[in-house]
Input
Amino acid sequence: MALVLTEGQAADSPQFVPVLKKVRVRGPVGRPRTRPDAVAGDKAYSSCGNRAHLRKRSIKAVIPEKKDQVANRKKRGSTGGRPVSHDVELYKERNTVERLINKLKAWRGIATRYDKTPDSYLAGLHLRASMIWVKDLTRTNR
Output
């Protein structure tokens, strides 16, 4: 759906909003959708900023809360707010992204980062993602 290239040591969570801004899903008719119904992520994406961004755009957050965030909320008492809830069945689908990352890294050029420039590396990611998508399409159309 969308790829954002960062430095190797950069954390994933700060890229949450930039990736969401790049998502465009085209249906059979009409303009591409830029707002998914829900976003599933692991605890790394459980920041207040990410949740506020999703709330502002009316997107359902399927992200569990970190233990330290639960403790801080409870410590604040009634001013700490309500507990975060998430759809357990929908959360099980988040491994789709993890499996895609593993399939991307199965291509040696991506796993070992042979490309010297960010543009050529990103082009390789797009090529590999396209190959995975086409293979998946041919598998489902049988």
About this structure: Strands lie at 38-40, 60-62. The radius of gyration is 18 Å. The mean pLDDT is 85. The helical segments are 16-22, 48-56, 67-75, 88-91, 95-105, 108-111, 118-140.
